[in-house]
Amino acid sequence: MNSLRILAARWIIMSILSLCTFLAGQVSLAPAATDFDSKWKDLIAAAQKEGKVVLNSVPGAEMRQKLPSVIKNKFGVELEFVSVDTREAAQRAIREAAAGVLSTDLISGGQSTFVNELYPKNMLDPIKPLLIHPDIQNPSVWLKGKPWFIDDKDQYLLRVIDLVVPIGAVNAKIVDPGIFKSGKDLLNPKWKGKIAMYDPTRPGPGSNTLSYLMKLFGEQYAIDLIRGQDVKFTRNRRQLADWMVQGKHPIAMALSITEFARLREEGFQVKFILPDDVLPPEGPASGVFVLLKKAPHPKAAQLFLNWIITKEGMQLYTNLEGAPGTRIDLDTSKLLVPESIPQPGKQYFDTADWKYMTTESRKLFGRIRELFGR
Amino acid sequence: MALEIPLGVRAAAVRLSFLSSNHVLGVVVLGLVAVGTLLPVLFLLWSSFNTAGPTQMPSYGLYNWHAAFSDSRVFDAIWMTLRLALTRVAIAVIAGIIFAWLIARTDMPAGSTFEFLFWVAFFTPALPLAFGWILLLDPDTGLVNRWITQLPFIDESPFNIYSFWGIVWLHLTATSIPVAVILFTPAFRQMSAALEDSARMCGAGAFMTLRKITVPLLMPAILPATVIMLIRSLEAFEIELLVGTPVGIYVYSTRIYDLIDESPPQYGMATALGSLFLITIFLLAGFYWLCVRGRRFTTISGQGFSTERTRLGRWRWFASGVCGLYLFCSFGLSLFFLVLASFMRRFGFFDRQHAFTVEHWVRLFEDPILSSSLVNSLILGTTSALLAVFLFSLVAYVIVRSQLLGRQIIDVIAWVPWAIPGVLMGLALVWLYLQTPLRTVLYGSMTGLVLAMLIKELPVCTQLLKAGFVRLGNELEEAARICGAPWMLTYRRVVLPLIAPVLVSVAVLTFQAAVRDIASIIFLYNNDSRPLSMLMLEYSFAGEMERDAAVGILLVLMISVMAIIARRLGFRPGTST
User: Are B504 and B573 in contact (CB under 8 A)?
Assistant: First the structure.
């Protein structure tokens, strides 16, 4: 009986302690939530006052059509979406900033231009301090345990996409992708005249792919591949895709993931080339955001950036891009190219790695131009 | 007894009359031309010596020039460019003269319809057409090659679009021959048949009359048109990129484009390379001046105007058949490709399930910026066309009729906007706009785009109008003035109606250039002023060729409607003055 009383007393004490702990937790959490809600409302109000946010982004009709209406409906803020090539977007920003008439707040695109142009010219504002959404504190939702910045200061170049970028793709009706156990299998004489590539002497996917292969297998490999196999260059990604599915050049190197996804959507049998001795490259494609210094609509830009890292924002963005995001709680079941989703535990070579981009990649590209520039 | 006034005295009287009453106007017009053309180009040349980056303090030197021309590949590209340009211009001029003569000077059936079709052929965007020709003439997969190799004794594909002649063919069908016909036909139409009648009475046949009388008389129209085509050919690079790159054919403009497309862009070097066009254009302008100086080319005068056309007899149906066949092979197939592309799930893949679809059109009309782009293009095209007719006719008139000091220099300067490739001109304008206090008015606005188009189209419009005025005698103006008409009334009621076909050509050419141009305005537009051509470029960049083709059809329709309205308003290209 006595022991029962002791147990009951312990239970009551534990319950009271648990209740106190819970209440204490609630008390400590409540101001934080209230604080965020209040900041969020203030941010929305400030963004509405500015009226709009201007985003220069790589051409993509679906994105341009759908994203502005979502932002408008959700926050009452106009998203002015200007479709423009990343290099031109950067040059536009440089020209406008020099004249003091900057019209753009944000640019999204491939990382190279930001790394080589805007970042060294000190034209960017840090994004990290502007992120107030509670999700940034939750490591369990992020692929890297936190929002992914690719710059050396870890706060300027926000990466929202991470996808596997194959070195090439094949028309599977003509070429069995399983044949390529090694990257050197591409040098087999039977593929002579059958390979096409996005022009590697220009900045872009072709140079990225060939630089990586050259890093792995050396300069002679690149010479044997390009000259020995009589690889045809093109600067038109649609042409590269058409050549592959027509069978004219059934092996397409540096084919864009967008073209690949479109071919698959249209029912073509196309597959990635993933040799065993080539660590699969991964990259952000055009999913890197930067905030321009002295952006004309800073609050609206901050609101957009905070929204794009939420589950809702990134889900919509990655759906429209057709590529996996840097959050791990996104639904990827609708992606047309599941092979492009990086697998947990598997190793990849990050083509947007800061050190690689700012040192080795530049040297390799320079050498490619010397070797194959026409 | 009629009082004979020497020709030189009458011309001087007209010039003096203009000089006395409109001297200020003339000076203002020429001054505007000088500022509008020279300023961007001088700005560009100046910046070619700046070796510092855009955000650095300027530092001047010859590095860009040295670096640009020390690359031996540049000279290979120049040689290839010249070969391509001269080949296709030579073919286009001969074909253009023949077609224009058949349309304007002979009794060939359906000439007016053919002329209109040449216009529409010229309006049709080149890139979807290039894909169409690749579909037919690819050496491995081309449909025509496949059909031909199924014939006995033919083992190899006879055609290869990825070649020198492939590039020439694409340019001839897409632009060169249509533009030659468009530029030559008004001149042929404006010529009185009196001299041709005389030649025929002396026993000359139709082709001898064409060779000995018609073509020499029309040299003031043929020469500038040829120069215009040659310069345009030197500047072309889109088709070369598509079918030249895979087989290692690079042209000069590709090199310039490459430098601008570098990361970071090498604007200084690109401008240094572009300056070669400046030298070329002055040489060509000098050549033109040498050819026409001291000669009279009056074909419209107060001495009656014969509209009698050369009778081709039994050859008229043959001529009509040749014209029709050419138009079918070039324009007919082109239009077919364009329409087909817009209705195919993936252009060129006929063996797919559900190969045809209206999805691209549905998605295009769902695009929220389509309507604003359409309206912007209409405003841009119409405003540019009207201003071009008004301003450039004055410029040409002042150059031809006045004796203002320095008018010959202005005549040469008027070529300058075409002396550098369009993309460099676009850059020059954006830099210039951003440097002026008017930057908020010009940059990103429709005003800025219209101004850019006017500067860009100044050379072709002025030369065409000048050719019109050169062929116009003084007698009719003189008669109006004797009757007491002031200069402006004479200009409006006598001069302009007499050169109406040229005015229509200028208006339609400017309209189509404004709604199709990309290079000159790519740096200048913003979200509010985005025209249809930029929407088309966006689809093209995104690899959505089918929607790109659908926008192309909208553009062709828009320009065709404009041309039809021009005809309805009375400036019928098929009507003689």
Answer: yes
